[in-house]
Each structure stands twice: as structure tokens, then as C-alpha cells.
């Protein structure tokens, strides 16, 4: 289903969390992006991959704790509890004879047990969650880190934790959004707070009932991109072909942030486009999001500063290359990097502010500060060389 419009019809195996071979297209204009063969027929492999990817992955931090507290055996069980509903898009699955409507079930407006799931995901105090905690939009959140949706003053916000060792990623998300603000880049705004004795980042949803998020992975599947070659050109061509004419500039903006943050996790689910949920029209690049895995947040204190010459960059299907290569895809003349001069001190202060919760060392804060200063200097030098 896409809101109240049927899109596909066919059998479904709840044990395998998969559609059957008898699946048929009802409305090709509202199909999820990237689930067809080149001739327009349904690819069962792509469809089922798209569907299962909606669920909580098996590598989620704190998954065993979550399963125990929600009394489930597999996170994909949750996918079936609430019609596979998400707040990233407006697709869902229901039985043909089920009279329930989109207005009744969607989580953009419907209340849910946010505190129950939040405690099950984040709390250090062991307790079984109530039945309602298994019926939330959190059943369809992908990604490694602990996370949970909350509704505040009528709007949806995502709380996301960091790696248990240092909890540095939430502050990095905060920093990335400040970089974007200073450079005039469209990015999701992040703030920090403490939830259940965990440092978390907090950001508003970029989607709503009228706007779906489509990941780069699905975009590339839609154009049948060859995974054996670097997929940058295929992605740009796909977006420009659907009317997103500033695609190259949007990627430049994202890569400026990745370069400065030394982001190591820009895989195909961490960028994408926004699509009109009523017509399927591609609207624009999604604002930059998920830039927290960087600035040495995963390495020991003594290794942080040396990360500036590491080969740990990730982009589309490319892995383990130097961040310096990103400069080839950045319009360096467009940005005023002097606007970043006050951010290293602000970053250091933010790390200190939450030090009593994260317990990171003064040395770690200093080394992270030094690395960020180094990155700003390096991109300034690169920009100067092309003037």
C-alpha cells in the first residue's frame, strides 16, 4: 500500500518476511523506487531486500537487550507488528480483506508508546517493556546505533546514541550541523541532550505525510547501476534525469562535511532524495544527515590525530580510500571556510559539557580538537590552491 492506494498484490510469507512469486503490480507509478527489472517488471529479490531493510538490523547496538525487554526473538518480528509502517515514507503492507485505513494506522499522527520503547532501547535498568512498546514507528529504523522516535509538541524527533565506548558520535552530529550552518549547506539540524544517562543527538524528521525519503541505494537500483564501477556518475545522472538539477552541488555540500568530519560511514543508506508522496515525483536531494562517525570517534585516544592521513573513507560503493580524493568532487570556490574558525573551540566545549556522562578523557577531547583544526587548515589550503 501507498497511503490508501494499492500498489502491489500477492502472497506474503511471515516466516521469511518476504513476498511470494505471485506478486503483481497494481500501480506502477507508486512503486517503491528501485524494485523493478530493467523491463519494468517486479524484481522479487529487490522488492524483498527493500522490505527487509525497513526493519531493525541484526547488528544494532543493544539489540539483545531490546529483544529481551520486548520479548521477541528476531527484530524482524517487529516489522510485522505494525504493517511495516515507517516515518521515512508512506508505504505499508496489509491483508487484502483488512478494512483498516492509512488515517487510522500511520504514525505521522497516531500516538505510540515512545517512552516504553525508549526505555527498552536506552535504559541501563533492566525491565520488561509493556505490550504497547512493540507497536511504534521504531520497528522500522535501520542503522547501527541505538535510536528511538519521540513526538514533541506535535513533531517527530529522532534520538540517537553513540558507540558505548566514547559516545562521541552525538557531539559529532551536533558539530556537522554547525558546519553546515556556517557554510550555507542544507543539512538536518542536530542538538544534544541526555536520555537515560546516555548522550544522544536529537534531530527532527525530514519527512512527513507528503514527503518520502528514498535512499541512494534505491536510486541506484532504479537505474541498475553497475556495482563494479564507482557509482557517483550514475547517481548524478539519475537525479538530473528526474529534474534535480543541483545534484552535483548537493553532493559537493555533503562531501565538504564528510571531508571536514573525516566521516567513515557515507554508505548508500546515508544519503538520498526526497520524493512527493502523492505523485512519486523526485523533489530534491535530502538534507545532509548521519555525519557523526568521524574525527576518530572509533579509535583509541593515541590514534585520533593520526587519522588525518588514514584511508577510511566510504562513498557509494567505494571503500577504504583517502578523504583527500573527495576534494576532486567538491566545488571549493563556493565556500567561505573562514566561517569555520570559531567551531573547533565550540566543539571542544561541547565535548567537555557532556564529559561527566561520556567519561572521555581530556586527552581525547584535545586530540579531537586538534584533528578538527587540522581538517579546516587542510581544506583552506586546498581551496587556496584553486583560486
Compile the SSE list and pairings.
Elements: E1 8-9, E2 12-13, E3 18-19, E4 24-25, H1 44-52, H2 63-70, H3 76-81, H4 102-105, H5 114-122, E5 147-152, E6 155-160, H6 169-183, E7 191-195, E8 198-204, E9 211-215, H7 216-222, H8 232-241, H9 247-261, E10 272-276, E11 282-285, E12 313-315, E13 318-321, H10 343-353, H11 355-358, H12 362-384
Antiparallel strand pairs: 1-4, 2-3, 5-6, 6-8, 7-8, 9-10, 10-11, 12-13
Helix pairs in contact: 6-10, 10-12
Word description of this protein:
The chain has 387 residues and is α+β, with helices and mostly antiparallel strands. The protein has a domain at 211-384: Phosphatidylinositol 3-kinase Catalytic Subunit, Chain A, Domain 5, CATH 1.10.1070.20. Helices cover 31% and strands 14% of the residues. The chain is built from twelve helices and 13 strands. The chain has helices at 44-52, 63-70, 76-81, 102-105, 114-122, 169-183, 216-222, 232-241, 247-261, 343-353, 355-358, 362-384, and strands at 8-9, 12-13, 18-19, 24-25, 147-152, 155-160, 191-195, 198-204, 211-215, 272-276, 282-285, 313-315, 318-321. The strands form five sheets. It has a four-stranded antiparallel β-sheet with strand order 5-6-8-7. A three-stranded antiparallel β-sheet has the order 9-10-11. Helix 6 packs antiparallel against helix 10. The mean pLDDT is 96.
Amino acid at each position: 500500500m501507498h497511503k490508501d492506494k494499492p500498489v502491489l498484490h500477492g502472497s506474503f510469507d511471515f516466516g521469511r518476511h518476504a513476498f511470494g512469486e505471485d506478486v503483481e503490480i497494481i500501480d506502477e507509478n507508486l512503486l517503491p523506487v528501485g524494485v523493478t527489472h530493467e523491463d519494468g517488471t517486479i524484481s522479487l529479490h529487490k522488492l524483498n531486500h527493500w522490505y527487509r531493510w525497513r526493519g531493525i538490523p541484526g547488528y544494532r547496538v543493544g539489540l539483545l537487550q531490546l529483544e529481551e525487554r520486548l520479548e521477541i526473538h528476531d527484530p524482524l518480528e517487529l516489522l510485522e507488528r505494525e504493517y511495516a509502517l515507517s516515518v521515512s515514507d508512506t508505504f505499508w503492507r496489509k491483508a487484502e480483506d483488512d478494512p483498516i485505513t492509512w488515517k487510522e494506522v500511520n504514525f505521522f499522527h497516531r500516538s505510540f508508546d515512545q517512552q516504553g520503547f525508549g526505555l527498552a532501547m536506552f535504559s541501563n535498568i533492566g525491565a520488561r517493556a509493556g505490550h504497547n512498546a512493540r507497536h511504534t514507528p521504531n520497528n522500522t529504523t535501520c542503522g547501527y546505533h541505538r535510536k528511538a522516535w519521540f513526538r514533541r509538541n506535535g513533531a517527530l524527533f529522532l534520538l540517537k546514541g553513540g558507540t558505548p565506548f566514547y559516545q562521541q558520535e552525538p557531539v559529532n552530529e551536533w558539530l556537522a550541523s554547525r558546519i553546515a550552518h556556517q557554510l550555507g549547506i542544507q543539512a538536518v539540524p542536530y542538538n544534544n541532550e541526555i536520555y537515560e544517562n546516555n548522550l544522544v543527538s536529537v534531530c527532527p524528521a525530514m519527512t512527513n505525510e507528503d514527503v518520502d525519503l528514498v535512499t541512494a541505494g534505491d536510486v541506484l537500483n532504479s537505474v541498475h547501476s553497475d556495482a563494479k564501477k564507482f557509482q557517483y556518475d550514475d547517481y548524478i545522472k539519475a537525479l538530473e534525469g528526474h529534474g534535480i538539477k543541483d545534484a552535483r552541488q548537493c553532493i559537493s555540500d555533503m562531501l565538504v562535511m564528510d571531508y571536514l568530519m573525516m566521516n567513515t560511514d557515507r554508505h548508500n543508506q546515508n544519503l538520498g532524495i526526497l520524493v512527493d508522496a502523492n505523485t512519486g515525483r523526485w523533489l530534491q536531494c535530502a538534507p545532509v544527515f548521519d555525519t557523526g562517525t568521524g574525527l576518530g570517534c572509533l579509535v583509541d585516544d593515541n590514534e585520533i590525530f593520526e587519522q588525518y592521513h588514514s584511508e577510511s573513507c566510504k562513498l557509494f560503493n567505494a571503500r577504504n580510500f583517502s578523504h583527500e580524493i573527495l576534494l576532486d568532487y567538491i566545488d571549493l570556490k563556493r565556500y567561505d571556510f573562514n566561517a569555520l574558525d570559531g567551531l573547533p573551540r565550540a566543539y571542544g566545549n561541547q565535548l567537555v559539557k557532556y564529559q561527566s556522562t561520556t567519561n572521555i578523557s581530556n586527552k581525547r577531547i584535545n586530540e579531537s580538537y586538534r584533528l578538527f583544526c587540522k581538517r579546516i587548515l587542510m581544506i583552506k589550503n586546498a581551496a587556496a590552491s584553486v583560486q
